[in-house]
Amino acid sequence: MADAMTTSGAAAPTQPAKTFALPGDPLRPPDTFVDVRTQELQINMGPQHPSTHGVLRLAIWVDGEIVTRADPDIGYLHRCAEKIGESVSCIQYVPYTDRYDYLAAMNNNLGYCLAVEKVAEVEVPERAQYIRTIAVELNRIASHLVAIGTYGLDLGAFTPFFYAFREREEILRLLEWICGARLTYNFIRIGGVMRDTPAGWVEDIRKFLDLFETRLDEFNDLLTHNHIFVARTANVGVLSIEEAVRYGLTGPNLRGSGLRYDLRREQPYLLYDRFQFDIPVGTGIKGQVGDCWDRYWVRLLEMRESVRIVRQALDQLPTGGEIMAKNVRHLAFKSKAGEGYLGIENPRGELGYYLISDGGANSYRSRIRAPSFCNLSILESMLPGTMLADAVAIIGSIDIVLGEVDR
Amino acid sequence: MGLFERSLPDVYLTRLADLAVNWGRSSSIWPMTFGIACCAIEMMAVGAATFDMDRFGAGAFRATPRQADLMIVAGTVNAKMAHVVKRLYDQMPEPKYVMAMGACTVGGGPYWKHGYNVVKGIDRFVPVDVHVPGCPPRPEAIIEGVRFLQRKIMAKRVLADGAPQKPDFTGISISPGTVGILDPTIKVTSTTAGPAAASAAPLAGAKA
Amino acid sequence: MTVAEAFEQLKKDGQAAGVELFPGPKDAALVVTRERVKAVLRHLRDARPFACDLLVLVTGTHMTEKKDAKGVLVREAGFEVIWHLRSVQHRSILAVKCKLPTADPTVDSVADLWPAANWHERETWDLVGIRFTGHPDLRRILLPEGWEGHPLRKDYAYPKEFHGINLEVDAPWPTP
Hints:
The complex is a heterotrimer. By secondary structure, chain A is an alpha+beta fold. In chain A, 44% of the residues lie in helices and 12% in strands. Chain A has helices at 81-87, 90-98, 105-120, 126-154, 159-179, 201-224, 227-233, 241-246, 252-256, 263-266, 292-316, 371-376, 379-382, 388-398, 402-406; strands at 41-45, 57-63, 66-73, 188-189, 192-193, 338-346, 349-357, 365-369. In chain A, helix 11 runs parallel beside helix 14 (388-398). The longest helix of chain A is centred in the middle third of the chain and has 29 residues, at 126-154. The termini of chain A are far apart. Helix content of chain B is 35%, strand content 6%. In chain B, helix 1 packs antiparallel against helix 5 (139-154). The model of chain B is unreliable at 175-186 and 190-208 (pLDDT under 50). By secondary structure, chain C is of the alpha+beta class. Chain C has one domain (3-142): Beta Polymerase, domain 2, CATH 3.30.460.80. In chain C, 18% of the residues lie in helices and 30% in strands. Chain C starts with a helix and ends in a 10-residue tail after the last strand. The relative contact order of chain C is 0.14. Classes of the chains: A alpha+beta, B mainly alpha, C alpha+beta. Chains A and C meet through helix 1, strand 6, strand 7, strand 8 and helix 12 of A and strand 3 and helix 3 of C.
């Protein structure tokens, strides 16, 4: 019956049946329009949801298809990072840093080691710094590959996922070769790196880079200019520079909005001032500047820049030389008293460690500035006003890692 | 199998039926897409091209617990998450299996001592069929765990009543003890009984 | 802009009341009294020479008293809150510090100046137990509601169970 389509279920049966009419239907007089009342509905997304990249719970209030309010609920992966940071020694804490941003574990190692080295005043040999750069940039490519692959997955494109993981396995093979682990490396140590490059490693990286550059173009066919992908991402989730800065966004999310801000250039750590590379920013090719497509595009371009950096680092890699600082005695490592903050450019933004040391083996306080944590907080302001189906596209474009959000 | 669950006499015919049912169940284990932490990335790698868990009939990842047979708990479970894991387990239809993947789910892993919030082993609140150690386990280890699970399923009684059978783990390529099953009555037989060792034996003899 | 330059600039702007320079052993910081901290942070954000538009991090630390071998006090008991601010325009980073007494760890919220502070302050309340007055929605963020205590305090005792979930380290293994 037509009655069933109306929402006014309490209508008396004696009244003539009202039919549902679209507004502006010329065949019906206006008084037969049915008052379709909508009410706010709360939807729970997660913590078990394939598109939340882990265990994010998102409480979304919708009015029809429009999101009116969003409240991210995090903490389902809280692993006591900062308590452990002050309960174990600095040396012991390095493997824990792997597990926070597990897609870019090498970068996390680096951030922590640089912070400890800053407080403890450790000089790192040049060769170790080059090996660090190579490892970190390879890891950045691997991380962006997962981001792009799973972003396609979120939007219903299954194939890019397989392509991305095919290249990623190659990088994992290279990283496993040098440190023995696929995901949690613990390769960059305080004062240097774990071990020197194995024979044939450098040549294999060159081979891989040559292959990878051609394979990067496949993503342009698979995703970048794919009509469905563009329709789902262009002009969706537009983020202005001011809004991004106010919410403390960094990394590709900030650069996707058009601000050329990269800590590798702003405050060069490691040896980044010796390399030529561009900082890609979103320019609004398919839609407005700062939409989801721009953030995706920045990640894709950054992989190309990482390839450039790795090439230059391989060229400049000195033959021979120390890989570990001399004054670091790992069994009895004690930091100097002091406090310091150091931020590096993680694939997801500024990863910072703020350490307070009182001269003991443990840090007195180890605070982590997790980029995903800050990036995620913008969902509260970004989601209201968008369509419900776009929520997944926006979450995917922010590219969070829940291990880092919750720590 | 519902009404007939272990109600028929243990005769050749019912055993044959059991075998058929178990073969079907063990060759189409549908895992739930349920990644928690780092291990989830390796779980995704297992589903991707290089390792391809579909070869073992366990590649159809389901997004809802109501369509899944296997819950791979991939990552650290903390006090906030434990209730969710328990509820997801309750939502799965029988027969259901649980794989504890990674050191955190096996016994707390690196968060064992100072993780005030971390549950030290998910077997404190859900029954676990296979423990896969590693931090995170390699994709091969997950495949290994699935194969262990398949052998366990093959030993189940479905229609026929009788004493429980012991699973047969011969020929599984990893050395005993690497993939642990917390039941001390089950012995993982040595790989020497497997075909690989059998082919290696004459070679050793020839050398001698 | 270094912290020392920032301190000089604050003096020039007439905002240096209640501000001291902490030379650090490593990173320097501006130490501001509790009453003045919000005004100083607002000035750092709005004044053109600083233009600290990016709030990087809010840290809360529980400090316990520590004396060295000679009995000299090297660390006072209390709480410390540190704001790390970046200026995108000037490529600089500043640290502002505020010391709070143990009995009353309360400080003004800056969530209205930087929305980024919202979650940082919630986290600091959750883990360290520092109250931010004027925060729009100060509740736990990482730990579940109903959790007792603030884990990053130095005297925190690990819980044995939470809502029926056993969290003990040495619980007996389940019997097969």
